From TrEMBL:
<dbReference type="InterPro" id="IPR052953">
    <property type="entry name" value="Ser-rich/MCO-related"/>
</dbReference>
<protein>
    <recommendedName>
        <fullName>Phytocyanin domain-containing protein</fullName>
    </recommendedName>
</protein>
<feature type="compositionally biased region" description="Low complexity">
    <location>
        <begin position="137"/>
        <end position="153"/>
    </location>
</feature>
<dbReference type="InterPro" id="IPR008972">
    <property type="entry name" value="Cupredoxin"/>
</dbReference>
<feature type="signal peptide">
    <location>
        <begin position="1"/>
        <end position="20"/>
    </location>
</feature>
<keyword id="KW-0732">Signal</keyword>
<feature type="region of interest" description="Disordered">
    <location>
        <begin position="137"/>
        <end position="164"/>
    </location>
</feature>
Length: 191
């Protein structure tokens, strides 16, 4: 009987950390600037990119190029469905079948915030792969790989490093889940 309870608690605790991660992006900032912070993020298929309006009136629209400032031709292109004033939060779920090691872009559709050809208020979403857990993967040519989990990512014209990988946060959750499951097993055994 005790073994059954321990097994049930162990499986339940494993389920507690198998959820999608939230990758946070601020829309505008405390200075009132028209920016996405960070402007480059990495998410895994199944994660959610959570946009939080901090200042100003902004929108979030998926685009096919960092400097296009035009809605993507994809039939299911992501959009916040309008421009909104802070405070607001909107989530962009990364499809579970998204192709790893690819990227897409987003921009603010408010007039003057994104300028075709030069960009402006725009950002990059890198879709990570299982090996991009935030650690250093082997770089092409045998050199040192970046420690931000983007070793297998195609180059992007945007500057700045990618935000901490959601996979790193998932790994930390796994560690917490193992500790929780051990505690549950001990508690079930004592009962």
């Amino acid at each position: 009987m005790k073994t059954s309870f321990a097994s049930i608690f162990f499986v339940a605790s494993l389920a507690s950390f198998a959820q999608a991660a939230d990758v946070m992006v601020n829309v505008g900032n405390a200075k009132g600037e028209n920016v996405f912070e960070p402007a480059k993020v990495m998410a895994m298929p199944g994660d959610n990119v959570v946009f939080t309006w901090v200042s100003g009136k902004h929108s979030v629209i998926e685009t096919d190029s960092l400097t296009a400032c035009a809605k993507s031709a994809k039939p299911n292109a992501a959009t916040s469905d309008g421009a909104f004033l802070a405070p607001k939060t909107w989530s962009w779920p990364v499809p579970k079948d998204a192709t790893p090691n690819t990227k897409t872009w987003f921009y603010c559709g408010v007039p003057g915030h994104c300028t075709p050809g030069t960009g402006g208020m725009a950002g990059t979403l890198l879709i990570g792969a299982a090996g991009d857990a935030g650690g250093a993967a082997p770089a092409p040519g045998g050199g040192a790989a970046p420690a931000n989990g983007t070793a297998n990512m195609p180059p992007t014209p945007s500057d700045g490093a990618a935000a901490k990988s959601s996979a790193v946060r998932n790994y930390q959750s796994i560690a917490a889940g193992v500790v929780l499951s051990s505690m549950c097993m001990a508690a079930a055994y004592v009962l």
